[in-house]
Design goal:
250 residues, alpha/beta, Rossmann fold, 7-stranded parallel sheet, 42% helix, Sc_DH/Rdtase_CS, NAD(P)-bd_dom_sf, oxidoreductase, EC 1.1.1.47
Length: 250
């Protein structure tokens, strides 16, 4: 990926940071968009960090244009920014709904909107939308999150159809991944250790995933080896949701 440029949102931690580090290791220029700086040294000339609210069109436009002016191309976009808010149809506030939709769905539309014209110039762009296994199965009390992550599958298909063959678009749908967002959510419980064990037990793989595993899939999907994959939703979930409820391993 030498001389290619990747833009990654929510890039300061978790899956976003793992993707950024792997793109960098593969030789790409890496543009990190997040509200806070990453916890790694980004002083190399192939790193570019923007403190950017990706739910705001003008902020995204400015960051994308600066990235293009700096590196000369935009080849990959990883739409990873996301937040979790808890609630049902009757307990989710309108403010919480809007917040989740703005970060988890609108931002991915905005970033694609501003990156695609530059990808069309090179004729070979890839957009990865980080969705979730919860686009297929859900749990209690995550109405807004599940709705936004499911909507990303439609966004992915539409981009893939509208901009083929110049731009490919794929949704990556992780199961439970060991990220700061997961740890923060678990720590809200009176018994975090028990909740973590529940997370492990619900996966037939008998563990949760790592950000690096998701990043490896993202890199593959952006590579020429995945050139015949577009418009698809690919799960990386340790088998979550394939067992009958209540079934247990021997």
């Amino acid at each position: 990926m030498k001389n290619k440029t990747a833009i990654i949102t929510g890039a300061s931690k978790g899956i976003g940071l793992a993707c950024a580090q792997l793109f960098f290791a593969e030789g790409a220029n890496v543009v990190l968009l997040d509200l806070v700086p990453p916890s790694v040294d980004v002083h190399d000339k192939r790193w570019l960090f923007f403190a950017c609210d990706v739910s705001k069109s003008e902020a995204v436009k400015a960051a994308v244009e600066k990235a293009h002016n700096t590196f000369g191309s935009i080849d990959y976009l990883v739409n990873n920014a996301g937040i979790q808010r808890y609630g049902t149809a009757t307990t989710t506030t309108e403010e919480a709904w809007d917040e989740v939709m703005n970060v988890n769905l609108k931002s991915q539309f905005l970033c694609a909107r501003h990156c695609i014209p530059f990808m069309q110039q090179s004729g070979n762009g890839v957009i990865i939308n980080i969705s979730s296994v919860q686009a297929f199965v859900s749990q209690h009390n995550v109405l807004a999150y599940t709705t936004a992550k499911t909507a990303l599958l439609g966004l992915t298909r539409s981009i893939a159809v509208d901009y083929a063959p110049q731009v490919r678009c794929v949704a990556v749908c992780p199961g439970t991944i060991d990220t700061p967002m997961l740890r923060e959510a678990i720590n809200l419980s009176p018994d975090p250790a028990a909740v973590m064990q529940e997370c492990v037990d619900m996966h037939p793989a008998a563990r949760i995933g790592t950000p690096q595993e998701v990043a490896a899939l993202v890199i593959f999907l952006c590579s020429d080896k995945a050139g015949f994959i577009t418009g698809q939703a690919i799960r990386i979930d340790g088998g979550l949701g394939i067992t009958i409820a209540g079934s247990k391993r021997d």
